[in-house]
Amino acid sequence: MFVESYINAIYLILLLAVGITYINHRYIRMQPTIAIMVSSLILSFVIIILGNLGFVEFQQNITNSMRDIKFNELLMNGLLGLLLFAGALTVDINNLKDYKWEILTLSCFTTIASTFLIGICLYYLLPFLQVPLDFSYCLLFGALISPTDPIATLNICREVNAPRTIKACVSGESLFNDGVGIVLFITILGVITGESDPTPGSVVLLFFQEAAGGVAYGILMGLIGYKLIKPLNDHKIEILITVAIATGGYTIAQLLHVSGPISVVVAGLFIGNKGKSFTVKESCRDHLSTFWEVMDELLNALLFILIGFEFITVPNQGDLLIPSVLAIVAVIGIRFVTVGIPLSLFKLTRDYVPHMIKVMVWGGIRGGLAVALALSLPLSWERNVLLVMTYAVVTFSIIVQGTTVKHVIALSKSKA
Fold first, then answer.
1. Which of 66, 91, 225, 313 has the smallest CB count inside 10 Å?
2. Tens digits of residue pLDDT in 241-276
3. What integer pLDDT is reported at residue 234 of this predicted model?
4. 137 burial class (0-12, 13-18, 19+ CB within 10 angstroms)?
């Protein structure tokens, strides 16, 4: 083995991520997460090339180390709660309230409509590319790729200093639409594996349990955190309480079969907004804010370098290049339809910044969540197809959309 354990591999990858972050900050000045992912993708290509040149054992050791890490489990059961809590702490809940109907529509209608439209599009077009995929797998791809990634989206929104309207809608949608996407994903996967035979009633019940249960449990966690922190004057204990909510609270949510992501987002919003008034000293608030800012930077660096290195484990499917391009076009085109229609209707009664729809479409970044869901699928030819297309969409989304969305946002600023 290249390293003795997956923990050693994570430490080495984290060391590399910090090194890339430092070099980027000093000399390159790209958006940090994008710089990290591009660097790890380049290193992945180098490792693959070295394998083709005869260093097969070296490539295989690296690949085995990445597989031992189990990216889907690490993200879904390890990093996600911390990252979402850190992101939610910085979101102004008053901005979300002002655009609650847009956020609700984008989180529910857009995600559900996008899932089915992407599935239908691929089902009818992929056979022309000699990749006949069963309709259920096409829907499964639609479910995992339709939700915008809250980690990537929040990070990029902060970096490009988006206008208040855009920041509220983009961040609000991304924070809550994963609950809808995960319910759809679980339901469709259950049909494929034969583990469930869902009815409309059972799907609605599952959604209510996951989403509404996650909101209720998140409010409870936030309230408990608020009551515990309010009388304190020790930033160390305050930080430990918030870490416990983001980790232990997230785990308990999964045991209760409610949405862990939604619950930590709601708890983070509650504590982040209430916390502005309940800490005794401003220095305590500063310590809490600084801790979660550093945690956010560190875990984002780890996440995005892992996304880049996961390229090594993606099956070599050269015949899926054109289907992957089709998937990218379909995802962006259908997002334009499913975002453009409801926002055009909302525009009849309220004003938005110029080019609002363009920014919302192009700012809908896909990231680690989609890759994690694709990696969680049972081994099969269909899994390989979905994984390759997912990786193509995520790579395009983070690198191309992530680096150019600031120019689209600039249009709305210049004419606002």
1. 313
2. 999 999 999 999 989 988 888 899 999 999 888 766
3. 83
4. buried
Tokens of 227: 């009551």
The highest-confidence range among 116-120, 150-154, 343-347, by mean pLDDT, is 116-120
Q: How far apart are CA 102 and CA 167, in angstroms?
A: 12
Q: What is the DSSP string of 35-94?
A: HHHHHHHHHHHHHHHHHHTT-HHHHHHHHHHHHHH-HHHHIIIIIHHHHHHHHHHTS-HH
Environment class of residue 114 by beta-carbon count within 10 Å: exposed (0-12), middle (13-18) or buried (19+)?
buried
Distance separating alpha carbons of residues 259 and 247, to the nearest angstrom:
14
Neighbours of 94 (CB within 10 A): 9
Helix (H, G, I), strand (E, B) or coil at 131: coil
Is the four-CA dihedral 63, 69, 75, 79 of positive or negative sign? negative
> Is the pLDDT assigned to residue 280 strictly greater than 50?
no
* Cβ burial, residue 283 (10 Å; 0-12/13-18/19+): exposed
Q: Give the Cα-Cα-Cα angle 218, 222, 223 (nearest 5 degrees).
A: 115
Q: What is the pLDDT of residue 275?
A: 64
Query: What domains, with CATH codes, occur in the chain?
Result: 6-68 (no CATH), 69-414 (1.20.1530.20)
